[in-house]
Write a structure and sequence with these properties.
InterPro entries: ABC_BtuC-like, ABC_transptr_permease_BtuC. This protein has 345 residues and is mainly α. The protein has a single domain, classed as ABC transporter involved in vitamin B12 uptake, BtuC (Orthogonal Bundle). Helix content is 76%, strand content 0%. It has 15 helices and no strands. It is globular and about 65 Å long. It starts with a helix and ends in a 6-residue tail after the last helix. The mean pLDDT is 87.
Length: 345
């Protein structure tokens, strides 16, 4: 893709994200006009540049309820999509996703422990995010050490170790669900299905630095990801330290995925279908693929969250159900397409 076309496409996607965010803030039980949404944003984020001419109610709805929810879905969508693109590049497989190494199961164990043990009474709203993030991070280090053979970590062994550890941790989650009280069991199930219903500005502040930091690290590794597509042997002959690159990619992906899951619960298919769709539209060069996946992942998750809010008002559908309903058919399409393709790249 030429530079001019690339910047034009990225500008178009960025504009689409702004439009989607504004639309998501508008829609709800109380519909707020788009101009009023923009005025409230400008008033709040510029320190009163625009004179206030609206009541307190729409301002509370926009700034305290909907905007932090939309921002959190943007951050999580960006993180999961970029992490998915990096995992697909590392494993050279379109079926790879951020949860492929058991990180989601580790986060689920941490969150379930926080809920079942009632740690929220001690640590407040930080209990679930902290333990979920810790669980995801510990899991990736356990998987890495299981798969390590000397100074090397074969990609196939890493994948199999992730599947095995993930299944074991899923059994732990099942045991915690059986042990939980009825109230805690309901909270566990809702968390496992994913939701932004309780999103606050504090959640945004908790995850913004680890998410953006991890995304930046992955974006700095685009050259290495491109080289890995020719195989590890070729990368070694070109002078690349493959094992160091793997460690950086895994740590950054674990950071991003753990931070995202800690505040949203387990939201599937974002890191699977978004990078693949972007690759089909814009090519497989990671310099283009990762930033475009970040923006498209944000748009996709904001749309899914808006649909989750409005599809069965006044109640709300967990966003994991929406992403699964969209992602599962696309996953089947990927499988059928892969049967007819010799090389997906």
């Amino acid at each position: 893709m030429k530079h001019g076309n690339y910047f034009l496409m990225m500008g178009f996607i960025g504009t689409g994200l702004l439009f989607t965010a504004c639309l998501a803030v508008m829609i709800g039980p109380v519909v707020i006009k788009p101009l009023l949404v923009v005025k409230i944003w400008v008033h709040q984020f510029t320190g009163g540049l625009i004179e206030k001419e609206w009541s307190r109610i729409p301002e509370v709805i926009v700034m305290d309820i909907r905007t932090p929810r939309v921002l959190l879905s943007i951050l999580v969508g960006m993180g999961l999509a970029v992490s998915g693109a990096a995992m697909q590049g590392l494993f050279r497989n379109p079926m790879a996703e951020p949860y492929v190494l058991g990180m989601s199961s580790g986060a689920a164990v941490g969150a379930c422990l926080a809920i079942v043990l009632g740690m929220g009474r001690v640590f407040g709203p930080f209990a679930i995010p902290i333990l979920a993030f810790t669980g995801a991070t510990v899991t990736i280090f356990v998987v890495y050490n299981i798969a390590r053979t000397g100074n090397r970590v074969p990609t196939e062994t890493l994948l199999l170790a992730g599947i095995a550890v993930g299944l074991f941790l899923y059994a732990v989650v099942s045991f915690l669900k059986i042990s939980a009280s009825m109230e805690n069991l309901q909270n566990v199930v809702l968390w496992l299905m994913g939701s932004f219903a309780m999103a606050t500005w504090m959640d945004v502040k908790i995850v913004i630095l680890p998410l953006l930091g991890g995304i930046c690290v992955l974006c700095f590794m685009v050259r290495e990801l491109d080289i890995l597509q020719f195989g590890e042997e070729t990368a070694i002959h070109l002078g690349m330290n493959v094992e160091t690159v793997k460690r950086i990619l895994l740590i950054a992906s674990a950071l991003v995925t753990g931070a995202a899951v800690s505040v949203s619960g387990i939201i599937g298919f974002v890191g699977l279908i978004v990078p693949h769709m972007v690759r089909m539209a814009m090519g497989s060069r990671h310099r283009i693929l990762l930033p475009a996946s970040a923006l498209c992942g944000a748009i996709f998750l904001v749309c899914c969250d808006t649909l989750a809010r409005v599809v069965s008002q006044p109640s709300e559908v967990p966003i994991g159900i929406i992403t699964a309903a969209i992602g599962a058919p696309y996953f089947v399409y990927l499988l059928k397409r892969r049967k007819n393709a010799v090389n997906w790249w």
